[in-house]
# Entry
Amino acid sequence: MTAWGFADCQRQSAGAGFGSTLGRLFLRTLPTEFTPNSVYTWFPLMTPTAMEPHLKKLNVLDKYDMARPGTQSVATVVKEYAEVAEILKDTESFQPPYTARAAAVVKGKG
# Structure
């Protein structure tokens, strides 16, 4: 195991899930289904109604989104070379879904 992998497996008590790693697993494996600030992501074994008083008592309720995650749009399949070329040229209209997540890791133009 690498030093990075070992550090990544460690409990982060100051994190959004108060040390849980299940939320990190959801965000990595199902990134379009969960949001980083959702109570559904970090406390999946509790209902939001049950979790709300605890988060309020800890004065961190404002950091979490209590709404149920919405359905994500279906990916469009592109099969023709001309369509791919058009998409790659038009960076304003066509944004990959992972741009914001990559920007947190890669600084500048990556």
The chain is about 40% helix and 0% strand. The chain has one domain: 12-103.
